[in-house]
Automatic annotation (TrEMBL):
Superkingdom of this protein's organism: Bacteria
Spans annotated as Disordered: 1-20
Protein name according to UniProt: PIG-L domain-containing protein
Keywords tagged on the record: Zinc
Organism from which the protein derives: Streptomyces spongiicola
Keyword Zinc: yes
Listed InterPro entries: GlcNAc_PI_deacetylase-related, LmbE-like_dom_sf
Length: 260
């Protein structure tokens, strides 16, 4: 349960105030493990960014093919890829790439770092977004253990930002693929962190974030017996409102920001 005295709880109204996430950038790359990772909270911020004319690209380590118990991976992967592309389109994202790592057993290591570094060099973002790389989700959700794929992809993303800027790490990216180093990433913003520092106003993007999560229909069908629209709205509106006490009373998406 939530401990109201815990200073790391993003929903604790007496916790430190969250700062507005920097907005002086043009290109972002969002790197997560699974289809729906960005829709569970982040999409309202993405809608806000694309409304402002910024470019956002999604990069998924897996196709989420192990996510539905009743659907075999060979069928599930393409289904979830379609749902992810539809969810991205709702918030103004037209480029969605998949690295094809195996769902559920993504390994932190040089292969994953290299794949992410290659994408950073291709897309040249100033802001990189990822999902909680820490062991747990923090006190707001009872300290629940985070998934191994999220931990691996989040940590590899934080590390790959440095790799992307160094020509001598993964030299094959330049020699074999013509990918010049890109050292222009200024921040990594981690969504779902138990220790957030910044936030983005979710007011304008909240309805579209609901619609974005709703695109994952095949997945939601097995996740909940409830009306999918009611489920998505309650979850996302509740999460955004929970951040409000630490962000001037405004519903928001919280991030832990790592400047470079
Ligand atoms: Zn996930």
């Amino acid at each position: 349960m939530t401990d109201p005295t815990d200073p790391t709880d993003p929903t604790d109204p007496t916790g430190p105030r969250l700062e507005p996430l920097p907005a002086d950038w043009q290109r972002a790359l969002a790197v997560v493990a699974h289809p729906d990772d960005l829709e569970y909270g982040c999409a309202a911020a993405v809608a806000d960014w694309t409304d402002a004319g910024k470019e956002v690209v999604y990069l998924l380590a897996t196709r989420g093919e192990a996510g539905i118990d009743t659907v075999a991976p060979a069928e599930c992967g393409p289904l979830r890829e379609r749902e992810q592309r539809a969810g991205a389109a709702v918030v103004g994202v037209s480029t969605v790439e998949f690295l094809g790592h195996r769902d559920g057993v993504v390994e932190y290591g040089t292969e994953l770092r290299r794949d992410i570094a290659a994408a950073i060099r291709r897309h040249r973002p100033e802001l990189v977004v990822t999902l909680n790389h820490r062991d747990t989700w923090g006190p707001a959700v009872g300290g629940a253990w985070n998934s191994p794929d999220h931990r691996a992809v989040g940590r590899a993303t934080l590390d790959a930002v440095g790799d992307a800027g160094n020509r001598w790490i993964f030299p094959e990216l330049l020699a074999g693929h013509g990918l010049e180093p890109w050292d222009g990433v200024r921040w990594v913003a981690v969504a779902g962190s138990p220790t957030p520092t910044h936030a983005v106003d979710a007011t304008a993007g909240l309805e579209r974030s609901v619609l974005s999560l709703l695109q994952h229909r095949g997945y939601l069908q097995v996740l909940t017996d409830r009306n999918p629209e009611v489920y998505c709205r309650e979850f996302l509106v509740g999460a955004a409102r929970a951040v409000a006490p630490r962000f001037g009373g405004v519903p928001a998406v919280a991030f832990e920001l790592f400047p470079r």
